[in-house]
Each structure stands twice: as C-alpha cells, then as structure tokens.
Amino acid sequence: MSTVLYIGLRRPELEWAAELDAARQLGLRPHVASDVDVSHTGLPADQMSRFAKTDTAEEVVAAAGGAPAAVLCWGDKHVGLTSAIAERFGLRGVGAEAAAAATDKIAQRRALDAHGLNPAWRSGETLNELRTAVAELGLPLVFKLAHCSGGRGTTVITEDTDLEAVFAQTKLNYVPSTAFLVEEYLDGSEHSVSGVVSDGVATVLGVTDKLLHDNTFVTWGTITPSAGPEDALRQAAATAAEAIGYRDGGFHADLRLTADGPKVLEVGGRLGGDTINSHLIPLASEGKVVPYQAILSVLTAGEAPEPAAFTRAAAMFVIPTGDRPVADVVEHALKHPLAVAAVDWAPEKAVAVVVTAANTEEIHALDGLRDWFE
Fold it and tell me: Can you say whether the dihedral through the CA atoms of 314, 315, 316, 317 is positive or negative?
C-alpha cells in the first residue's frame, strides 16, 4: 500500500480525523511526521514519527520508513520542509520558490503587485522603517509579520498605537527575522477561498464567508457557499495562487471584498482550516467536492478535480465555553436540529459546531443561532 506522508497535523479532531480518513478512502496509508506528539490520533506506532527543526528531508523520510507516494502539510511553518521532501524524492509539490513565497508575506505582495490585488503596503525590518511606513501610508493600517500565520502578531495601527510595542511582535516570526509589512486597512467583507493547483493551473473548490469578532481578525464563524460575488472572488484567488507560482498542491486565499473589488490578504501554499475543507465544502456539495481527497489526487496522480455546484449550505461557529464543561456545551449544541458535529476547539476555551441548511440565506437569517448554542 502506498503511503501519504503528512508533515504535521491539524489540531482540531474534526480536521485531523477527516484528513487521515481521506487517505484511507483513496487506498493510501497515512503516516504523520510531526515535531509534537500525535499519539492522540490512535495511529499505529509505525505510522507516526517525530522530527526536529534541524532534520533534513532525508532524515524525516527515513524516520517515516521511506519515500512516500505523496507528501503534504497543514501548517505554513512546514511548507518549506514539505517542498524540500517533494523535490528530493521526485514527488509533486508546490515547488521550492513558491514554498519560499508561501512563508514570506513580502514576497507575496511583490508577486501580486502586477495584478491589482494588493492594498497599499510597505515593508521593513527596523523600528524606524515602521515609523516611516506609517507616515507614508496614513492611518489606520494593519501590521503583519512577514514570516508567520494564523494572525499571530497582526495588529491594527491607529493614532494611539505604541509602534515600539508593535515592532516587538517581530520576535514571533517563524524564522530569525524582524521583517514586517504594513498595509492599508481595508473595509469590506472577508472571504476564504479553497483550491488546488495542478501543473500550475488553479482550480477553486469553494468560497467561504468569514464572520469576525468586531475590530479583530479573529474568526468566530465560516459559511459555505459565499453570499458574495463568487466569480470575482474565485478569479482573484486563482490569479493569486498562479502568480505566486504554486505548481502542485493545495492553497487557500483570504480576501477582503472592497468597493474596488477583491483584495488579497494572503495566499498560502496549503489548504486552510476552520473546518472549511474537512466539513463545510463536502457538506455543501453533498459529497461531490472533498478537498482532502482532491489534493491527494493531484499529488499522487496529477489529476485536477472537477468543480461542482453546491446544492446546500454549511457553516461552523466557534462557541465560547466560559466556565461550562466542554462536554456539556457539546451535548447542548448537538441538540440543535441543524447541528451535524460539535467538538472541543482547544486550545481556545470554545467548542466548534458544524451546521448544515438548505441554503446560505437560511444560515445568515439565523441571527439567534450562535446565541442558542451559547
């Protein structure tokens, strides 16, 4: 049986269980190599291995039992290692140059400049350069780390912001670097686009609306399919993925829909999270689109998936548990007639609840749905 090597693992069970099952459904043997313990997956000992930051591609593969049929990852910090393994063992992957851009937001901005998909932006590596960028662009702005993901270190800069404290966030970069960028703060709705790239050509699998806590970048809900102009969002995301140069694999693009059209916030060289690919797209398409299987088909056989129309809608809401036991919140959530799954959303003190409905409008109309779960 051919092996698919996962570098790292999704943290939520809703996602890691789905990704391992996707491999099994395609007749592949999943092996997880991680820099943290993954024994909670219940995989046999010979299907798990550990690696350190300093390990080479050869060392990681040797510890996993030999060259796999495909290799992929679920976190930005492992895109480089995953690409190195693919290059070393002749496997399909996003490519070394694109992998470098996937973990460098400054490189992404340079690649997208020619396509009109960027907000106004500046980059730098020193506190003085940060002050100069703020003076040139005006307020409000968004500060981002050049080498990070998941919103770590991201800050809205206003008149009251301590720029020295903001610059200190550069210590959170995944690599030893003080590189950062600041961008125009964009008004508009936020969306996440999932897709795969096969031989450099992007195929969009789904567009999701993101619900954010007020004045933050923290997602509390995701809804598929989008209620926005999907054609424009799909085209912007595909253009961004191809501009970065992704060759084979998954991608996700986060966008803001502004009065001037879609603008790209980032485009990563892997599929995204928030149960979008594990649950929402499969549920909304009634099983016609399964992103975790689509990416494996691209990587093992070079087969790009056929897009399919979504005939239902699905959503995920993050429900704070407060002082309540997680088990009680899960039990209550599953009593709702639209709920199909609920699970601990650690390390946050929250539970993720997946729901499905006839259409997106029905989910958007349920103003009290999150209050019911809470």
Answer: negative
pLDDT of residue 209: 94
Lookup result for tokens 């059209």: 261
Whether pLDDT at 17 is above 90: yes
**C-alpha–C-alpha distance, residues 236 and 230, integer Å:** 10
Distance CA 264, CA 255 (A): 4
Number of H helices and E strands in the chain, helices first, is 13, 16
Helix (H) or strand (E) holding 261: strand 261-268
pLDDT at 373 over 90: no
CATH topology of domain 3-102: Rossmann fold (3.40.50)
Mean pLDDT of 96-109: 92
Q: What architecture is the 120-184 domain classified under in CATH?
A: 2-Layer Sandwich (3.30)
Instruction: Tell whether the model's pLDDT for residue 77 goes beyond 90.
Output: no
Q: CATH for 312-374?
A: 3.30.70
Give the phi and the psi of residue 71 in degrees, each rounded to 5.
-135, 140
Q: Which of 294, 304, 205, 241 is nearest to 94 (CA)?
A: 241
With cut-offs at 50, 70 and 90, classify the pLDDT of residue 317: very high
> Is 226's pLDDT higher than 90?
yes
Measured from the Cβ of residue 43, the count of other Cβ atoms closer than 10 Å reads 16
Mean pLDDT of 211-231: 85
Q: Which amino acid is at 351?
A: V
Residue written as token pair 């996003």: 94
The reply to whether 120-184 shares the fold of 3-102 is: no
pLDDT of residue 68: 97
Residue-range domain boundaries for the chain: 3-102, 120-184, 312-374
Per-residue H/E/C for 179-247: CEEEEECCCCEEEEEEEEEECCEEEEEEEEEEEECCCCCCEEEEEECCCCCHHHHHHHHHHHHHHHCCC
Q: What mean pLDDT is reported for the chain?
A: 92
